[in-house]
Write a structure and sequence with these properties.
By secondary structure, the chain is of the alpha/beta class. It has a single domain, classed as Rossmann fold (3-Layer(aba) Sandwich). It has four helices and seven strands; from the N terminus they run H-E-H-E-H-E-H-E-E-E-E. Strands 2-1-3-4-5 form a five-stranded parallel sheet. Strand 1, helix 2 and strand 2 form a beta-alpha-beta unit. The protein is globular and about 40 Å long.
């Protein structure tokens, strides 16, 4: 069975879901890499304060429970938060929620920068398979995939901000 997901249609749902989750003084923080792409486009499409660079990007690398075996991933951007975290409502954005381990690591990283008033999670796809008690306040889609498959968000090859999104499904054994 070939999985067909319309990433652009799901993005539209995510945008409206995020609009409903936004609190006054809220900031978007995208999880590297797919979540960062989404946050970048959401920041622009929702016309949020701070302009096109008003969103943050956060990396899970240094707080992962498998850091010892994975080390630093090449090509991973470091965390960039162009605002104070203390007392802010942080809306975390990610592309795919699976085990919950990346979210746990990102929340640890976020608290290294201060103490937010709240942290809310919105994702494009929740694929189930949780290993930790973590849930998204909003998911544009929920589906179940075998543990042997990976669902990844991609965007237009030229990487233009606001470019079109698509999904790829690969077998982990083939990577």
């Amino acid at each position: 069975m070939l999985l067909q997901l319309d990433a652009e249609a799901l993005y539209t749902e995510l945008r409206e879901g995020v609009r409903g989750l936004l609190k006054p003084d809220a900031v978007l923080v995208g999880i590297w890499s797919g979540g960062a792409w989404l946050a970048e486009r959401l920041q622009k499409d929702l016309g949020l304060p701070g302009g096109e660079k008003g969103y943050g990007v956060i990396s899970s690398t240094l707080h992962r429970d498998d850091f010892g075996s994975r080390g630093l991933a090449s090509g991973t951007d470091p965390t960039r938060l162009p605002f104070a975290v203390d007392g802010r409502h942080v809306l975390l954005i990610d592309d795919v929620l699976y085990t919950g381990r990346t979210i746990r690591a990102v929340v640890n990283e976020l608290f290294d920068f201060g103490r937010p008033a709240s942290v809310t999670l919105a994702v494009l796809v929740d694929r189930g398979g949780r290993e930790l008690p973590i849930a998204a306040a909003f998911a544009a889609a929920r589906l179940v995939l075998p543990a042997t498959q990976r669902l990844s968000l991609a965007r237009t090859p030229d990487g233009e901000p606001g470019g079109a999104f698509s999904f790829t499904v690969t077998n982990k054994n083939a990577e």
